[in-house]
Design goal:
Elements: H1 18-31, E1 40-41, H2 43-50, H3 54-66, E2 70-71, E3 78-80, H4 85-109, H5 112-130, H6 134-152, H7 156-164, H8 166-195, H9 199-223
Antiparallel strand pairs: 1-3, 2-3
Length: 241
């Protein structure tokens, strides 16, 4: 048997393109609300700010519009899409379905090292709540859930969750104006269930934690009315600017 492998020709491994980098930058700013819903944004201004040509910006705009984050209308200003409650609830459903099963597996796989990682994260969450630092708390919140995925033995699950939760994240950030403390208490409850390997409690607590937004969405919208789309508004369209 020959030791030589007959491989098909392979394309070079691609590094992130300029368009990919522009996309990631804009996506991050939209999800973090640094670019708030309804904000006007132009290819020319973005290209100038990032020191690139307009083509990669145009490509990034198109990708963001397909994901529902930009509204591109010919001969009119491109704007950051308003928050769609329908998209928020779709993302919440997907996330809940995945994480409820993940936390069950995490109960089975939990060890002292995993508990220590979660405890450290909870301590930093507490510091963020004391400082009323919603953006830092949001990052630690994500890290807490990512740790549970890793402890469960299914770290790839977090990638699936992250890819599907961006619309949810904008609403979550707005909710942290009033519920950081409540979220931290729920995280501590999940931690206790994991520590005692009580999978039934962990599943129930995780489900309640991730569905609480259903009860909060009316308040979030009432306090940030200009950020939300009317349920009867047409979906954003993709086009050229």
């Amino acid at each position: 048997m020959s030791d030589n492998l007959n491989l098909l020709p392979l394309d070079p491994i691609d590094r992130p393109s300029v368009a990919d980098q522009v996309f990631e930058k804009l996506h991050s700013q939209i999800v973090s609300l640094a670019l708030p819903p309804g904000a006007r944004i132009s290819e020319v201004e973005v290209a100038k700010a990032l020191g690139t040509s307009r083509q990669p910006v145009r490509d990034a705009f198109f990708r963001l519009s397909k994901l529902g984050f930009l509204e591109i209308r010919p001969q009119r200003a491109t704007t950051v899409s308003l928050i769609s409650i329908e998209k928020v609830m779709e993302a919440r459903f997907i996330r809940t379905a995945l994480e409820v099963e993940i936390v069950r597996h995490a109960c089975e796989a939990m060890d002292a090292a995993g508990l220590a990682r979660l405890q450290s994260n909870l301590e930093r969450q507490s510091d963020a709540v004391s400082a009323d630092d919603a953006r830092r708390f949001h990052k630690l919140d994500d890290a807490f859930h990512r740790e549970i995925c890793e402890i469960s033995g299914h770290p790839y699950a977090w990638q699936l969750i992250a890819e599907n939760k961006s619309h949810l994240d904008r609403a979550r950030l707005l909710s942290l104006a009033f519920n950081q403390g409540g979220t931290l208490r729920e995280h501590r409850g999940i931690y206790q269930a994991l520590m005692h390997r009580d999978s039934d409690s962990a599943v129930a607590l995780m489900r309640n934690h991730l569905t609480r937004l259903i009860d909060e969405i009316d308040r979030i919208r009432a306090e940030n009315e200009s950020y939300f789309a009317d349920p009867e508004d047409p979906a954003p369209s993709a086009g050229s600017s």
